[in-house]
Design brief:
Number of domains: 4
CATH topology of the largest domain: Rossmann fold
Order of helices and strands: HHHEHEHEHEHHEHEHHEHHHHHHHH
Distance between the termini: 67 Å
CATH superfamily of the largest domain: P-loop containing nucleotide triphosphate hydrolases
Largest sheet: 5 strands, parallel
Oligomer: single chain
Strand content: 5-15%
Structural class: alpha/beta
CATH class of the largest domain: Alpha Beta
Length: 382
């Protein structure tokens, strides 16, 4: 039986849902279809936002042969077979799903065919392509950022899917599933299809909840969502926004993030952002790390929460952090400048005769910095 997601997949922009910034009036991909001038491109966006569907619509609009490969399993021979089957003068679109999983050698192999136009490449990725796609290939593709579907767009999609299934989805179920899917159209459709197979043609919110065996958050611990969440977490503590910091902590905990990863970031934060303003912050952060190391989930989530509240409420100072990196800049700029003789080590008579250690005074107010930078000031109190 054909999956519901394939059954309702649109074949033109007229029925495509979402990404209005790309396919709306005067938007770039709408212009591609109007002009027929399809170029190699990369779709960067979260799961279920319509990357595959949009690629198929674009290929169809310019009359191109459409081939799909998954970078997870595809090999060079798969690309060779597509090239061998290509008719002279025809347009061929290669949709490479999860292009970030193609290694450098595979991307190098693909490059000349993209360069000379033999293949029109449409790559799809959930990861930042500037990190995962080689420079020469990336420079020959325009990157388009796709967004998660809005709740209203998911509601529209689910209403259409329910109609196709001849399912009556009550208002509460529709609202819940539209929110639950977190912008992922594929997830929403799959849950609806599963609920239909389990509970028939009249579905309530309780049916949807029963279909979902456990809460699920989209959170790839090696992907962008992971880094976006920890970034929001740190920035919330930095701004002393306790509620925001606790929310992002809860998201990480709910998704099963390693508590030691979170605690390590808190230890770093205590030195980087609080520093000398509240020296005990580092002690508290280290205590949280130790507690997580000793206890683990689920109990250590409370240690994390208490630590977050404390750190977020602390007075902040980056003075020590900024001073250190200013000093590091001088080290990089000037290299190992000569250390003043009076603060050099003098373990031998020869060294003492050469003036090592001569004139040293432990309470000296004259700078001990090398002569070239002796007037530099790194540490500035807030």
């Amino acid at each position: 039986m054909q999956p519901l997601a394939d059954l309702i997949r649109p074949d033109s922009l007229d029925s495509y849902i979402g990404q209005t910034h790309l396919v709306g009036d005067n938007a770039p991909l709408k212009k591609v279809i109007e002009t027929g001038n399809l170029h190699s491109l990369i779709f960067w966006g979260p799961p279920g936002c319509g990357k595959t569907t949009l690629a198929k619509i674009l290929a169809r609009s310019v009359g191109a042969d459409f081939h799909i490969l998954s970078a997870v399993s595809a090999k060079k021979d798969d690309i060779k077979r597509i090239l061998e089957s290509k008719e002279k003068g025809s347009k061929t679109v290669l949709f490479l799903d999860e292009i970030h999983r193609f290694n450098k050698s595979q991307q190098d192999f693909l490059l000349p065919y993209v360069e000379d136009g033999t293949l029109i490449l449409i790559g799809a990725t959930t990861e930042n392509p500037s990190f995962e796609v080689i420079g020469p290939l990336l420079s020959r593709c325009h990157v388009y950022v796709l967004k998660p579907l809005e709740v209203s767009e998911l509601s529209h999609l689910l209403t259409h899917a329910a109609s196709e299934l001849k399912v009556k989805l009550d208002k509460a179920a529709l609202e819940f599933l539209s929110t639950y899917a977190s912008g992922d159209g594929r997830k929403a459709i799959n849950v609806l299809e599963s609920a239909h197979s389990l509970y028939g043609n009249k579905l309530t919110k309780d049916h949807i909840l029963s279909t979902l065996q456990s809460p699920y958050l989209r959170y790839d611990q090696a992907g962008e969502e992971h880094y976006d969440t920890i970034s929001a977490f740190i920035k919330s503590m930095r701004a002393s926004q306790v509620d925001s910091a606790l929310y992002y902590l809860a998201r990480m905990v709910a998704a099963g993030e390693d508590p030691l990863f979170i605690a390590r970031r808190m230890v770093i934060f205590a030195s980087e952002d609080i520093g000398v303003a509240v020296p005990t912050a580092l002690v508290v952060a280290n205590a949280v790390f130790r507690a997580c190391e000793t206890i683990g989930y689920p109990e250590c989530q409370l240690n994390l929460a208490e630590g977050v509240v404390y750190l977020a409420n602390c007075k902040k100072s980056r003075a020590a952090n900024d001073a250190f990196f200013a000093a590091m800049e001088d080290v990089k700029k000037y290299g190992n400048l000569p250390i003043p003789l009076k603060v050099r080590n003098a373990p031998t008579k020869l060294m003492k005769n050469l003036g090592y250690g001569s004139g040293y005074n432990m309470r000296d107010t004259e700078s001990f910095l090398p002569d070239k930078i002796k007037n530099n000031k790194y540490y500035k109190e807030d």
